[in-house]
Every structure is written in structure tokens, then in C-alpha cells.
Amino acid sequence: MDDDRVIEFADALPGLPGMSRCLLVELGDSGSLFRLRSVIDPDLQLVVAAPSVFFADYAPEIDDETAALIGLERAEDALLLVVVTVGASLAESTANLLAPIVVNQVTRRAVQVVQPSPDLPLQAPLVAA
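Above: the chain sequence. Below: its structure as C-alpha cells.
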């Protein structure tokens, strides 16, 4: 197993206890979509996206306690991901902006962070209508 692609979650993802250790695998060459696959149960996987590609103004809050939990000391070491619900087409796919995943690219530790703003959608369209 390629350990530089393994991500370990500080806290289990809600409803997905088998996702504590995952491989992050790029889908295609765009650098915008990835598969997050459980090391424990390879059948358990999520599609995640780099939100900057789809939501230019998206800037979730990462508090000091959360940063400390994954050993994040510098903002540039953070990889931000959002969970994608895949539709029949890209236009029908949505992203969860309310609870992004923050990965410390140095320590390879991650956490899902529920945002304090109730205005962020659970199902934001990836493609503007």
C-alpha cells in the first residue's frame, strides 16, 4: 500500500466507522475529483472534490481546536475536500458544503468539520444551473 496516499481521520466520519483510514485516489487528471476509499473495507468509498474548482468563493472556517486535532500549523498545508453525491451526470451531482473534510497534507490526518453557518447547503450543485 502506498502510505503517502493513506489518510487517517482523527474522528470517525458520522455513520461511516470503517472510514477511519482511507486512500485518496485522484479520478482523472484534473485534480478536482477523488475517490476516498477505506483501507479497512475497500467496498466503502466516497467521491470527494476540491471545492475551489467548483465553488470559487467557498471559505469554510477551521478553528484552532480543529487545526490542533490534525496537527495543522499552516493554512497552506491544508487540503480541503467536500463529499460529492454523484448524479447521473455532472450537472446532477451535488457537494456537501456544510461539512467539508480538512486534510493536513504533512501529517496525513484529517477531520470532517461541520460549519457554523446554517446557510451552507448539504447539496450544492457542482454545476451552476
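The mean pLDDT is 91.
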